[in-house]
Amino acid sequence: MAEKDQVFVSHKFPSSTEVVEELKELWGMALPITAMNCLVFVRAVVSVLFLGRLGSLELAGGALSIGFTNITGYSVLVGLASGLEPVCSQAYGSKNWDLLSLSLQRMVLILLLAIIPISLLWVNLETIMLFMGQDRDITSMAATYCIYSLPDLLTNTLLQPLRVFLRSQKVTKPMMYCSFIAVIFHIPLNYLLVVVMGIGVPGVAMASVLTNLNMLVLMVGYVWVWRKKEMVVKWGAVGIEEVFKGLGQLLKLAIPSCLGICLEWWWYEIVTVMAGYLQNPTLAVAATGILIQTTSMMYTVPMALAGCVSARVGNELGAGKPYKAKLAAMVALGCAFVIGFINVTWTVILKERWAGLFTTDEPVKALVASVMPIMGLCELGNCPQTTGCGILRGTARPVIGARINLGSFYFIGTPVAVGLAFWFEVGFSGLWFGLLAAQVACAVSILYVVLVRTDWEAEALKAEKLTGLEMSACNGVREKQCEKDYESKRLLVNGNGKIDDVC
Questions:
Q1: Whose CA is closest to 39, among 245, 426, 297?
Q2: Is 500 helix (H, G, I), strand (E, B) or coil?
Q3: Residue 267, Cβ neighbours under 10 Å: how many?
Q4: Do 129 and 48 contact (CB within 8 A), yes or no?
Q5: What does the alpha-carbon distance between residue 403 and residue 449 come to, in Å, rounded to a whole number?
Q6: DSSP characters over 390-436
Q7: How many CB atoms lie within 10 A of CB 490?
Q8: Cβ contacts of residue 138 below 8 Å, gap of 6+?
């Protein structure tokens, strides 16, 4: 078989050289993204530290606000922006530059519309929390933090899509450098606003807003100055009608992508709420906070791997190379299992010492240590599950991931967690056994879809349709011509299985 034909046939066994090359390609993208995610995590830790410096009331109010804004705002924006992954990555693979630029504009518009109801929720945080029976003083402090965080919504409508836009083009190191510079200034900003100027809680919120704004300015500067010739964003090159015309197709990818991410993200918040109903709620909630921070830290690696394999799979499918797309998916899943085993190992070995990094309270340390091995096993499922979701997004099938997450976390994980923790009185560890059940169900389901039910040649042809006709910038008479051209494209497949662009 000719070499050009082999890239379209996904059934041949890869050589060791091909696996090594894919590992280099994948981790060349994933390591900078992992570093960027860690920097974002550090930024959040710095904010919490400065809130703690102000006092327990400020810390409690800030923590309540951070949880509320994560659930109602940031998770939604990140989830919607992830719907851009298959379009941008496949457009880049097929060298459809117009679609790449146009999709970015469409996603920014979608997020601008999304932040309107989110803003209304943030403005009314105090009313909502008081209605739910929260403490008035803590709620008032949380409302203050939330109000001063409002500008961050506007920043994220550009920041989140731009991250996907750059990652889909294998541009990851510049994002890491931009994040590093912004986070370096995050500590001085907090010190200036909180300590020197004495603004307090609003100062912590304003510092976070300014840090994200700095990230955005640096990334936009990179695109428009350093990579202007290679990465032209034709902003406003088409009419507003053309931007609106493709919103429906993009929303079909964005909404299930959002649900898939939010359903998992929200479940961890539900665990925190359920911990508050156990026999010793103060102890349980404190231990839950430490464990969630730990799992958030571990999540930075599989999250980066998922984003990068989504880009790799999308690039190769867009280029008409299903064999390479499958290879990227298999290599990423192999890496995910290795990362999962590493997490199991260190959580078992360091379970006693790890809790001591967060607290000196012996009962809390003992409770955290008792659950750490269970959480490690959860990561053994979470790593391939998260990576698998990235593969599904790269193949433009986020709706499958959303359905699996819904079934696994809410129809399996939640009943198991509630049943063990409350009905069978297992207590705190029962909640985490519920998470383990959810992760196992999720991982098995996604692996079945990716390994057994995915026809990579068919996905390559679907990618041609996605980038060549349904999501293209064609309109009017040009659209009719594109439809005729698409029919002819099905008959003019070249040697490597790629259908040439004619739109």
A1: 297
A2: coil
A3: 19
A4: no
A5: 12
A6: HHHHHTT-HHHHHHHHIIIIIIIIHHHHHIIIIIS---HHHHHHHHH
A7: 11
A8: 57, 60, 61, 64
Q: Which amino acid is at 363?
A: P
Q: How far is CA 219 from CA 84, 164, 176, 256, 301, in A?
A: 18, 12, 10, 27, 22
Cα three-residue angle 467-469-475, rounded to 5 degrees: 120
Between the CA atoms of 118, 120, 126 and 128, what dihedral angle is there, to the nearest 10 degrees? -80
Tokens 């690039």 correspond to what residue? 315
Place of tokens 């231990």: 287
The residue type of 350 is L
In the predicted structure, residue 5 carries a pLDDT above the cut 50: no
Which is it for the CA torsion 58, 62, 63, 68, positive or negative? positive
- Condensed to tens digits (0 to 9), the pLDDT of residues 245-284 reads 778 888 989 999 999 888 888 888 788 778 878 887 778 8
Tokens standing for residue 406 = 């819904």
The amino acid that residue 470 corresponds to is E
CA atoms within 13 A on the CB side of 200: 11
Beta bridge partners of 493: 499
DSSP 503: -
d(CA 44, CA 50): 10
Q: Do 7 and 323 meet the contact criterion of CB atoms below 8 Å apart?
A: yes
Query: Would you state the structure tokens that stand for residue 245, as one six-digit string?
Result: 């015309």
Name 192's Cβ contacts closer than 8 Å, sequence gap at least 6: none
DSSP 157-214: HHHHHHHHHHHTTT--HHHHHHHHHHHHTHHHHHIIIIIIS---HHHHHHHHHHHHHH
- Checking if the pLDDT of 483 tops 70, the result is no
- Looking at the DSSP assignment, which residues form a beta bridge with residue 449? none
Distance separating alpha carbons of residues 15 and 130, to the nearest angstrom? 61
C-alpha to C-alpha distance for 172 and 192, rounded to whole angstroms: 31
Query: Among 212, 194, 214, which residue's Cα sits nearest to residue 48?
Result: 194
> Which residues on neighbouring strands pair with residue 499, listed in sequence order?
493
Reported as a single tens digit per residue, the pLDDT across 24-68 is 999 999 999 999 988 888 888 888 888 878 887 887 788 778 888
Tell me how many helices (H) and strands (E) the chain has.
23, 0
By CB neighbour count within 10 A (0-12 exposed, 13-18 middle, 19+ buried), where does 238 fall? middle
Distance separating alpha carbons of residues 469 and 101, to the nearest angstrom: 16
Residue 469 has pLDDT above 60, yes or no: no
